[in-house]
Sequence to fold (240 residues):
Amino acid sequence: MFLGRFRGSLGKVRRAWLNPVMTGEKVSGLESERVAGILREDIMLGRRPPGARLVERDIAAELNVSRLPVRQAIWTLVSEGIVVQKPRSWARVREFSVKDIRDFAEVREAIETLVFVLATERHDDAGIARLREIVAREKAAAAVEDADGARTAAAQFHLAALALAGNDMLDELASILVTRLRWLFGQHDNLVESATEHEQIVESMAARDVDAIRVLLPKHLEGGREAAERRLRRLAGEGS
Ligand SMILES: [Zn+2]
Fold:
C-alpha cells in the first residue's frame, strides 16, 4: 500500500517536474494534477508562504473545482515534502528549519556534483547548445530583474544537466528531491550572480574540465544554501 502510493507519487513528481512553468505547457490529465501544479507553483514562487494554511474549501472555490481534486493535490504535495498535514488540522505550507536546509544541502552537493561531472564527461554538442541557450535566457531575465523568468531558467539549467548525465538512478533520486530542492534553493537572491555562475559552469563543461566542475559546483551550491538560510531567517523575522 505504502509502496504503491510512493510509486504513484513519484510518477506525479516526474511529470510535475517539467510542468507547467518550466515548459510553458498546459498540464493535461487529471484535475488533481492540475490543481497540484497550481499550488506547487504558488508555493515555489512564494505566493503561498511557509506556514500558510491550505483550506480545501477556499482553494476549491478559488480554482472553481470540487474539493476532491484539491484534497488529492494536497496529498501529492505532502508526498513531495513541501506541505504538512497534521491530524485534525489544516494542511500548511511546510516551514523548513536551518537544519533541514543543511541536511538537504549536504545531499544536494553530493548528487548535483555527480550530475555535473557525468554531464561534463558525456554531453554532446546539442546538449551544450541547449545549456547555453538556457543561460542566455537566464541572463536576459536577470538583467531586467524578471525574478520568475530567471529562476525558471535556472531550474531548467539544472534539469538539462541532469538529462545530459544520462543516469536513470540519478533521475529517480532527483525526482524525489526536486520539488523541495527547487523551493529551498531555487530562490537565488542574486539573479545576475547565479546566471554568471551557470555560464562559467557551461564553459567548463564544454571544455570537459571535470576538475573545474568539482570546484565550481560545490561553490555554486554553497551560495544557494546561504541564500536559503538568509531567506528562512527573513521569513522567520516577518512571521514574528
Ligand atoms: Zn544553479
Notes: The beta strands are 53-54, 83-85, 91-93.
